[in-house]
Amino acid sequence: MAKGRKRKAGKRHPCGKLVQPSAAETQRETMSTVLEARQRHYGVTAKQARDERLGTALGRLAFTGSITAEQYAAGQKYAEIYHRHHAVMGLPRPFPASVTGILASDGVLGGVGAPPSCELIDKVRRHYGAVLDVLDRCDRDLQQSPGPAPSVLVYRLICIDEDAGSWPQASRRNLSFALDALAELFGMARDSHRKVLI
């Protein structure tokens, strides 16, 4: 008997050809691998591993209670505005790509298809400009504080998806200050009664 390549395990058709798994089975296998990795890496239970917040650096801070629900929501809104702006303007996304960045490049948050209208461009610029103004104000307010500027920390956490678990206390405080300011801008702060952006 001639030796050859070892036969792959799995179900086979009567002709001997390997049966390909369905998309649902492939998705289940992928999700199972992700959940197992989360359990190992973050030391969480199987049930906790299903929490979608564990998929991003921002979400992990919310999961551990390091930031409030309002700060988490403000960070998500910032990510949406940042990536929408870059997609509409045709700017490159940061590397490594976050999930939101991938959605933007795939057209889910804009970008692919017909050129954007002038109204959309104006709206996106206005929203992004308001965010930049708030972060610039945060940088000026904390200019004498130790640690990186709040705008830099927000970018590293949300756009680059840098894990903040080991950041020093000064960096976490500056980040918290910026997320609070964004929450106020978006009308998400507990004491805020106005919503600047739609």
Detailed description of the structure:
The chain is mostly helical. The chain has 8 helices and no strands. It has helices spanning 23-42, 46-49, 57-63, 69-89, 99-105, 118-141, 150-159, 169-185. Helix 4 (69-89) packs across helix 8 and helix 7 packs across helix 8 (169-185). The longest helix has 24 residues, at 118-141. The radius of gyration is 22 Å and the shape is extended. The protein starts with 22 loop residues before the first helix and ends in a 13-residue tail after the last helix.
Notable traits:
198 residues; mainly alpha; extended; disordered C terminus
Q: What is the element layout, followed by pairings?
A:
Blueprint: H1 23-42, H2 46-49, H3 57-63, H4 69-89, H5 99-105, H6 118-141, H7 150-159, H8 169-185
Helix pairs in contact: 3-4, 4-5, 4-6, 4-8, 6-8, 7-8
Overall mean pLDDT stands at: 82
Helix content: 55-70%
Number of strands: 0
Residue share in β-strands? under 5%
Shape: extended
Q: Span between N and C termini?
A: 72 Å
**Global Rg:** 22 Å
Helix and strand composition category = mainly alpha
Q: Low-confidence spans: pLDDT under 50, at least 5 residues?
A: 192-198
Number of helical segments? 8
What's the order of the H and E elements? HHHHHHHH
Biggest sheet character: none
